[in-house]
Write the structure tokens for this entry.
Amino acid sequence: MLPAIILSGLAVGAVYAMIGVTYNVMFSASRVMSFTAGQLGMLGGVLGAAFIGVLGLPALLGFLLTLAACALVGVLTEIIAVRPVLKSLDQHLYVLSTLALALMIQQFVAIEWSTEPQPFPNLFGFQGGGAGDEKFWLPILACAATVLGLEFLYRRTLIGRAFLAIAEDNFAARALGLPERNLRMASYALAGVIGGLAGFASGQLFLAFFANGAMLNFYGFVPVALGGLGNNRGAIIGGLALGVFQQSANFTFGGVFASVAVFSVFIVVLLMAPQGLFGAPAQRRV
Amino acid sequence: MSASSSVAAGRGAPRQASGALWQALPFLGIFAAALILPMVSNDYWTLIATRAAIYWVLVSALNLVVGFAGQLAIGWVAMLTLGAYTTSVLVAGNVMPPVPVFPALGVAALVGGVFGFIVGLPALRLRTFYFAMTTLGFATIVTQVALAWQGVTGGGIGIVGPVLPAPFDTIFGFYLFCLGLAAFCTWISANAAHSRFGRSLVAIRDAEVAAESSGISKPRLLGAVFLFAGAMAGIAGGLFATLQSYISPEAFTFDLSVLFFIAILIGGRGSILGPFIATIVLTWLPEFAAPLVAWSTFLYAALLLAIVLLVPGGIAALLDFRSRRRIEADRTIVPRPELLPEILGGRKASEAITLKDIVLSFGGVRAVDGLDLTIEPGAVHGLIGPNGSGKTTTLNVICGFYRPETGSVTVDGEPLPAAAPQTRAASGIARTFQTPKLIGEASVLQNVMVGGAIRGRGSFVESLLALPRHRQDEAMLRHDALLALRCVGLGALADVRADRLQHSELRFLEIARALMLRPRFLLLDEPAAGLSAEEIRSLGGLIRAISRQGTGVLLVEHHADLIFEICDQVTVLNLGRELAAGTPAEIRAHPEVVSAYLGS
């Protein structure tokens, strides 16, 4: 029983962690928390099911198309909902603009796809719900791939270092001549890919369901909030821990209690450490 | 004071009353049309109108949270759900003996209020996106609990909604009941909006630091409006269950929350008419054409996006014709210091503010390094020094924004609590800011009235119901604010939106707001920055006159001429330490000051 709980917890947690990273990648590039992070995850599942399950495309092609479409949604988010409100970041209009866009994506999927959860095709033939089921392993592998990919990107490539420079100090990066706007769009595309990957990999776990977006928005945000904005390590650790915690509570006490428990822990930790467990406190300006 | 204020209130009353009537006209028109509606249409449209009225009961109160205080409570449907289930369960009597409808509605208000308060608490520490997420999470959980707690809520099958007793048990009777309640809610939320509480909420939203320095207690104020918004949502929930006649968790989708939230933003922040119109339009919109029902939430979201990107002020900004009126372009500020005794006179004398051995470092930098300073009442004390010498930091220590590592700040021999800026107003310490912190969307007069928020005596409930003490407070604040504006030379601009003023006028506006506290001490942070030579002369005269009324002034400035002209005492800071102190003449002759700062 215990290994099964931990396995499913890690699988669910890996998805939360990746959505957390999606939030962070967008935040690092623009200082904006976007409500579209969870919707990207939802789109990954729905588009994967549409391309492979409904249209019958080969799995690899469907996978690549899904990621490309999610990258596009990421870029569109930047153009429609983020760039116009960046000038007045202190008014927090981005909360409203990204919320509006996220709702539009969600409603569009609800109407054009389905309001009921739809099956996601099995990709490699490992199923049955046991420890060998790919629905548990795919999210974990995808999360590991994301971690390694980001490490490589940030440490070994020029564009990755440029991302870090923008995240560290936007003004200084621009003064150095970095193309801030293009890098921001690239970051949003990257966030789209990570979110889409999370959704695609968890398609068999969460099914292709329009309401997953709101669910992932919340559970993906919890590790970000607890780990500190922009802190990917915090998001990964927090996401996995959240998944295991939630699944344990789920098995022991039932679903409602698990939700209430997660919510309570989230609120209590945030009230004690508003900047997150790994974040630095912000200095107020008078 | 009381005599003069009642005279002025008497003089100002007719204009004020006609203004209020003018503002009420659109509401009266809409409610009159709503009364006629059932006679000219069928039951279907009456039900739609009932729905709009119930939504407005919730939205009018939530408007204070979202529109006025700027708190992004996007999951307020949770309070509606709680109210609906509380009323239904109590009336149905499936847990305890059945309760009549009206007491059940009262309990629903209580439950909604308590949970509104609890959900609102995180807003004190969490900002925007975080708070939005917590309300969203709470909404999800309430629905899940409603689904799972089958013994009480009927789970997914649901429960029968309550029925109001005669004469409100018919479609028309119920409509009239909801309409009456909606009208009442409009009235009380307008009262709250036009009270010191409403202005303080907007101040918390747009100028939080200034609100704290004016003594506005964010926890108490937000707590009150969250409680109020929760309670009204609870009542709305009970009526919603009556209207639905059968409720299940599916009735309370997130789409409803979106409608409430978006109605306020489309209507315009800080307005009542705007959200009122938006609530009606958004409720009615899906009925306009059948295909729109499925797309309604998509449409609301698209509208929200358009509003945020194109018209951030919402419907209210489109309807705000007054702010498009031209104002005189060529204005001069002519302060009238001779009026100051009316505001500042008749206070008992106080002792000095004394700073002893203050030390404060940021990281490795010692911003203030063992400073002693005394601000005497009735004198102007200049604080000068190069950039980074610790002038503003000193001011922020006195005002309680920073907690010094060592040392104490005392007034009248009593130590002032550290890191508690909201306590300074009560000690009679007022201040202005290096960059003016004002509410751009509010009028000049309202901005000044914010400064006197703590002088009001009526409670939030008294303001809601416009009881006598609320009206006395308003008359007093208005009278004093107009007086303060005339003192600083902005009397003619009282009704203009603050964001239409010139920079120099904003500096004088901040002084007027500070005067509302009838301060014993006034701390000015570079008030002359950006002013013309003539304006600096006016400012100097005004500051001098304020100090002659017994107020101790601390003046942080870079304009050496102004300092030497009006100060009684000058302290020169360098690297957080006192470089020199004395009369202006002594400082001018001080060799180190001349070489380090003034130049020869």
Notes: Residues 4 and 131 of chain A are 7 Å apart (CA to CA).
